[in-house]
Q: What sequence folds into this?
């Protein structure tokens, strides 16, 4: 997305009274934010040799890249602020960091050069746990907080594979030195170091619900994405939460079961499924812990969404349903919403939003032959169970 694309999306958010934009600025496949102290993060890390077409599909052979300059970010943040929207940055660590390691191999565990990742999925390359790496990230975060006045800064913590730490003599030595039990607690120590650094600068750390698994310092906010279990576990342990349940509000998931859905991914989340979302999980309602729910967030992850027109298709009109769930009481009226939505779709037409029709995709919104990764209900439930086994223990 060029600078103009998030500016346009900010206008669409304001139209729907959504007031926080969470920008995921780094990943294995690209580093998207200028850091003055470390120019190689964008000179090298912002560019990959090619991209995958669909899920495990062919490679396109086209170099891809780009990043936001610090002036771009200042413009985006100011533009959002004028529309009463806070922009929350994410620098995802210690996993999802292959682009950073490609730029700075000393951050990795292998001591060998890497390329910016070109394929989808969860990579095995993660940051090492040396003091020099912690210092590097603290310097990065210092520049991040100069650009983003948000009280919250997300450091990710999600989907971090521990294979390299298990094989690393340096990581194992660090575990022994710190008196930790395992690699999960090592990640917790890593995240706490960054949280302490942010706290000294008046900011609160946000991380995805995996940061619960090795223990978490007070004050951290948990973005609970793997169903409701992370939200319940975090709230009961005294942490504020943002409910991002992938079972309800991940807008990269397919919108219907039909074969014409473009690059279908995950389970089916239809408009009415998003409308049924409750920001406060059932296990917390009526309890003091319910006050820990700061808000809710839907996600538009773009591994399989390769154009802004496709972002429109995946986000709308489900984003309108999400907006109503977070601004309305639980006794909502779906037929009434549908009646009002029919008028609202005319507004989206007028401003050029290429939303999904109730009848399905228009011919140019399909992507015949591009493979996705749809999951049937049984496989989907198995995925949820595997994701949340650790979180059940935390409750």
A:
């Amino acid at each position: 997305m060029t600078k103009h694309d998030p500016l346009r999306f900010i206008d669409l958010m304001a139209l729907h009274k959504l007031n926080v934009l969470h920008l995921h600025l780094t990943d294995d496949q690209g580093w998207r934010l200028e850091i003055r102290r470390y120019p190689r993060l964008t000179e090298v890390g912002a560019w990959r040799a090619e991209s995958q077409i669909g899920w495990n599909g062919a490679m396109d052979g086209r170099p891809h890249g780009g990043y936001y300059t610090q002036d771009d970010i200042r413009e985006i943040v100011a533009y959002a602020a004028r529309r009463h929207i806070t922009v929350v940055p994410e620098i995802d660590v210690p996993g999802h960091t292959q682009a950073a390691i490609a730029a700075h191999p000393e951050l990795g565990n292998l001591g060998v050069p890497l390329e910016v990742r070109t394929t989808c999925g969860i990579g095995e390359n993660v940051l090492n746990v040396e003091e020099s790496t912690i210092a590097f990230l603290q310097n990065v975060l210092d520049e991040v907080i100069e650009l983003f006045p948000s009280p919250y800064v997300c450091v990710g913590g999600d989907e971090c594979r521990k294979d390299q730490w298990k094989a690393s003599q340096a990581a194992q030595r660090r575990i022994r030195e710190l008196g930790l039990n395992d690699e999960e607690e090592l990640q917790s120590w890593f995240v706490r170091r960054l949280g302490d650094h942010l706290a000294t600068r008046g900011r609160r750390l946000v991380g995805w619900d995996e940061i619960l698994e090795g223990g978490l310092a007070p004050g951290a906010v948990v973005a609970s994405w793997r169903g409701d279990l992370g939200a319940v576990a975090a709230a009961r342990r005294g942490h504020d939460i943002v409910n991002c349940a992938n079972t309800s509000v991940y807008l990269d998931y397919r919108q219907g079961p039909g074969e014409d859905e473009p690059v279908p991914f995950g389970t089916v989340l239809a408009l009415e499924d998003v409308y049924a979302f409750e920001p406060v999980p059932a296990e917390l309602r009526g309890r003091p812990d319910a006050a820990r729910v700061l808000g809710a967030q839907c996600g538009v992850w773009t591994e399989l969404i390769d154009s802004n027109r496709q972002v429109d298709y995946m986000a709308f009109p489900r984003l309108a349903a999400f907006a109503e769930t977070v601004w309305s009481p639980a006794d909502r009226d779906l037929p009434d919403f549908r009646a009002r939505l029919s008028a609202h779709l005319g507004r989206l037409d007028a401003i050029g939003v290429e939303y999904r029709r109730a009848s399905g995709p228009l011919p140019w919104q399909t992507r015949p032959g591009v493979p996705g990764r749809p999951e049937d209900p049984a496989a989907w439930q198995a995925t949820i169970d595997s994701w949340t086994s650790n979180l059940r223990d935390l409750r």
In short: The radius of gyration is 21 Å. DSSP finds 15 helices and 13 strands in the chain.
